[in-house]
Each structure stands twice: as structure tokens, then as C-alpha cells.
Amino acid sequence: MAFEKLDDALYSIGKYGRYQLIMSVIITALGTLFPAWQMMGIIFSADRPKSFHCTTTKGLTLLGEGTAGPNASVDGRTNSSFEDTGSQDACQAVSFVNGSESVSPCTEWTYERIYNESTIVTDLNLVCDLGILAETAQSIFLFGMLIGAVVFGYLSDVFGRKVVLLGACVVNGVFGVAVAFVWNYVGIAVLWFLTGMFAQGYNMVQFVVIMEMFPSECRTLAGSLNNFIWGVAMVLLAPIGYTFTNWRHMQLVISIPCFIALPLWFLLDDSVRWLLAVGRKDKARVILEKMARWNRRTPPPGGFLEISEDLPPLLIASDDNDNINKLPVTTESSPEKNRCRFIDIFKSRRVLLNVIIVYFLWFVALLAYLGATLNAANLAGNKYINVLLSGVVELPGYLIIHFTMTWWGRRPSMSLFFFVAGLASITTALLPQKTANGTDLTVAILISAMLIKLCIICSYSINTICCTEILPTPIRNLGFGVGAVCGNIGTVVAPFVLYLDEVAPYLPLTIIGALCVLSSILVPILPETKDKPLPETIEDSENIGKRLPVTENEKGTVHVTSVRVDATTGDTTV
User: Which residues are bridge partners to 61 per DSSP?
Assistant: First the structure.
């Protein structure tokens, strides 16, 4: 079967039918909301209090912030306790015995809990000499995401989208719940690694599933709405964190919903496109017939894929009146011919170039996203409001790209957003807090910083869609996973780039801006994938930029009334 003809069947049963809409909502909620909460929830779970006090001696009474009573005496010792935001004073206990000063390491602290919150820092006392462990735990979580992007991309290409999506979701819930009951650092770090790995894994798989569910012209809207839910997840996370200020309680709240994947096993289906790519046509036929029934289209008696030894395979399609028409399909492809490995990308210079550019854009987008987030002005003192606003500012971007990709296509849209992000980043870096005549430019800096984030969100979302559209189906999830790894490397590099402000305050955002401008120059090298069928082979990926957009005939609006097959020659006549 020529796999690109699958779009004909998807058009015939309704491109936005009830089946696609219901399944895409379920899969998006399952694979975007829950992973986003796990990945971004660490903002609250590993948050460090703004200040803490050394209170080694039990019974010591503080008379003022950072100062103990001048002669507070317990067990014959006079002690002094210091307020600090992490300086050496807060890490030492000072006592006076018989007029002699004695300094010892602090073993007990009192934390300033503005919102009555608890985190792994306050639970495990990860301050002073142990302070680096909080950042290390976050890095371990991030490393788990790197591993998950590769592992689950490969597993879903081998074992199928459904089993990996639902299985990883359930296991993610198990580890997410388990970490709430662990009280030692090593256990929390290990479970965070596993949580990050599985959360990244099924979040990536669900995006590919959504993209494979719809025909060519529908992928723009499907991809945009899928990314939009990430912003919604960020907005919802803020009230969850505010309500459950104990990080263990919050962890339970964001993890338990993952178990809804268990009953969904009996509702969700595997990707038809993947089933065809691995030669499982019978299963693909069953799912197509189910889609037709859900969309109130009458499935043809012989199914959607009718194979005959004497005649060319026929794709069964129905017109708007549910009349069944048989369209001839070539037999040039076979499961064996269409199978490819990730290493086959290196055999095609064109495909390799496309993949390298997409991965580089992914790296720059996440580097700029994190850089813009960490460099943005303090929107409000309340950290929950900051997270809320961070999600709100993303929402327009996911909607904007739908219209720009529909009107202009992938390449011009992404190039424009990268270019504007680059200019905004350099502008933010060079703007002073105040002008020579004393004018405060804080608002201008804030607006410019938010513009960076808005444009980067647009660039990142379009790039993830392009990544799924340039990779062949048999290696699409693995290739997408490698791209996610490249992007996550950008988040790892970002703190080191930001550290360059010790050399010059304008340097970090200037570097990020230059990378964004470079990205805008590289984007036009990529093929335009708007309304192109998803490639099934390496050859398809090589020629994707040369293929014509989906025509009205391919969409099924031109109806075929009959097909005659010459029994001798096998020729068909419409």
C-alpha cells in the first residue's frame, strides 16, 4: 500500500470527526497536562526559602530578625543566632562558655515560610554545605528527561504508540506518588530521575500520536492546540501549588490523575499510520472502521483496505453521501521497503541537513526560553503569581502560530519569530534600567523580555511540528526524542550562559539574541511542509519539499463514481 493514501481514508471518514476530536482531547490531557505538572512542579518542590536562621540550641528566643537576646542562656551557654539568606553566619552556631566564644556547624534551622510552604530544602535541610544538593536534584530530574526522550522514542517506534503512552503514564504516576513518601535525599533523587524520564517520554509520544491522527491540512490546528494545553497546564499549576503548599501533598495531587490511563487502555487505539508502517494492515483496517462508525460514516463491507492477488490494492473511500468509491492504490511500497532505521538518515545528505537544522533550532529555542524566563523582571513578589503569568503569556503564542502557519506556512512563520525574538533579546540586554535623565525603563525591559518569550514559544511550537513532518513514520518517535534531547541540552547550557553576566551584564541575552537571529537565517533551508503528506520512507523525506500540497482531489472533494478494471491488463479506468 502507498501509505500517503491514508490521508484519503482520513478525509473520507471526516477529518474533524467525533472520533478524532474525542481521542485528541483525551490524549492531549493525558500526555500534556500531567507531564507538564510533573516537569514544572519542581519549581515549587525544590524552591529555596528566601531566608533561614541557625537555631541549633533548643529554646533560644529571637528578639529581632537575625538577633538573639544578648544573654540568652540555655544549659549554661549564651548563644547567638543569625538571620541570613544563605551566608556563612546562618551556617554556624556561636556560643559563649565562660567568656570564650565557640563556633560550631549549625545543625538546625528555622526557615522564613512566607506562604507556609514546605519543600525538599526545608524537609531535608539542604542549606549551607548541602545547599548544592537542591540544584543537583533538579539536574538529576532534567537528566532523566534527557534519557526518557531517547528511550521512549525508540520504544514507541518498536512496540507502538499506545502501549508506551499509557504504560509510561501509569508508571510515572507510581513514581510520582512514591516520592511523596520518601524522606532521604538519595531516594528522592532517584525517584525524581525516573519521574522526569517517564514524564518526558509519554509527553513526547502523545504529540506524535496527535500529529499522526489527522490528515495533512489538519496538523497545523492539531499541533497548535496540543501545545496550547501546555500553557493551560502552567496556568493550572499555580493554583494547585498555592492550595497545596506542602510539596508532598502537591506531588500526590499531580501524580494520582496519571492512573486514569488504566481504564483508557480499553478506549484508545494505536496509531493507524504506525500500524501501516510496520505492516499490520488488519489492525489498521479495524481501527479505520471504528473511526468511521464513531463519525457516523458507514464502513464499506470489505473494510478500508481490500487486497486482491489479481488486482491492485484498493482504498475504499466514501463521498459526502456515504456512497462507497474504490480508488486504485499503487503497490510500489511494502512494509519491508518502508522500514528504515535512524541510521539511514545519515545516508541522505538532504535529510541529514534537515534534521541537524531542526535539532539546532530546538536547542536554541529552549535555551532562549529558559534564558528569557530567568532574566525577566520580577512581575510580582508572589511566586505563584509569577508562575501564573508565565503560563498566561504563553497562551497567545499557541494561537498566533495557527494563523501564521495557515497563512504563510512553517518556514516564514518560524523565521520571523526567531528574528523578532533575537532583536528583542539584544534590545533587552542593551536597555539600561534608567536613562541619563533619570527615566525608569523597567516597564520597557519587562515588555521586551515578555516579547522574547512569546516569540520563542511560537518558534518552538512550529519547530516541533516541523520535526514530526520531516521524519519518516518508522523512526518519527525516535527522531522526535533525539530532538527533545537536543532541546533539553539547551536548558542545561542556559544557566552557564546566564552566568556570563558576571563578565558583562549584557552578554547572556546578547548571545541568545545572536543565536536566534542565526536560527532565522537557517530556517529557509528547511523544506516547506505545510499541507504535505507525512513521509513514510527516507525517500519521501528527501522529496518532501518537492511534492505538491494536498489538492482538492486528495481531500476527497472530487468524487469517483466508478472504477473499471481490465481483467487482462489490470489497467483501471475512472
Answer: none
